[in-house]
Design brief:
Blueprint (H helix, E strand, L loop, with lengths): L14 E5 L7 E7 L2 E12 L12 E8 L15 H14 L11 E11 L4 H15 L9 E8 L2 E4 L3 H6 L4 E7 L4 E8 L4 H29 L3
Parallel strand pairs: 4-5
Antiparallel strand pairs: 1-2, 2-3, 3-5, 6-7, 6-8, 8-9
């Protein structure tokens, strides 16, 4: 099957990654895949206010996902928080929590802000990749780096890293996956469309392989900071 952008069915879009992109943040990172660009900033751990929200047994991870007003190639994105942005904020938080020990930060909060400055599908996955890098850049101890990718079926063909045309125009089944590359475990699975059990197993295996490639890019960007 020939894809609209010329890629092979199991080929990722070109990737770029960089850390330390927001100087006043405790940690920050940029992750680009194709024409989708995510910027993440981390602040904390710091004391949580108001105090009645504090938990003496563990800290709180808060994630905020936002698409900038002119980030998309189509209609103008509304500036106010949307139901979708709130959902993806929660999805991002849940994808990152398994690699963090929040019990080490009682009464504290770690805030993660993810901004999509340009979008062409796979935004939640790019945001998770950037957020994981930003947490590592902030020096937060992590058991693994979270990598994420969207795979999908189009006319019974499994595509890795679906783009906007495949997602929005050709209506491919969208399967968003976040993986812990070292352990091989998954911290996110969202499916938009219909797949059978055999297709899902195949999709997860392909996603796991793709996440290892993404992890290599994330790891390289984190190491680059300490070469200087």
């Amino acid at each position: 099957m020939k894809r609209n952008d010329g890629r092979k069915v199991d080929e990722l879009r070109p990737m770029e990654a960089k850390t330390g992109v927001v100087k006043r943040a405790d940690g920050s990172a940029m992750f680009k895949i194709g024409d989708t660009i995510a910027m993440a900033s981390v602040y904390g751990p710091r004391e949580l206010h108001p105090k009645f929200l504090q938990n003496p047994e563990k800290g709180l991870l808060r994630c905020n996902y936002n698409m900038m007003t002119f980030s998309g190639s189509g209609d103008r994105v509304r500036p106010a928080p949307s139901r979708r942005s709130r959902e993806i904020s929660l999805v991002t938080q849940n994808a990152l929590l398994p690699v963090l020990n929040m019990e080490a930060y009682p009464n504290s909060v770690i805030d993660v802000f993810v901004e999509l400055v340009q979008t062409d599908a796979g935004t939640r996955c790019a945001g998770i990749c950037a957020a994981a890098m930003a947490l590592a850049d902030a020096g937060i101890p992590m058991t693994d780096i979270v990598s994420a990718v969207s795979v999908g079926y189009l006319k019974n063909t499994l595509l890795v890293d679906i783009n906007a045309v495949e997602d929005c125009d050709l209506h491919a089944t969208d399967i968003a996956v976040a993986c812990l590359p070292r352990s091989g475990e998954f911290s996110l699975l969202q499916i938009d469309g219909d797949v059978n059990q055999k297709q899902l197993v195949e999709a997860l295996e392909k996603a796991k392989g793709a996440c290892k490639k993404i992890y290599a890019v994330q790891q390289k960007a984190l190491k680059e900071k300490y070469k200087k």
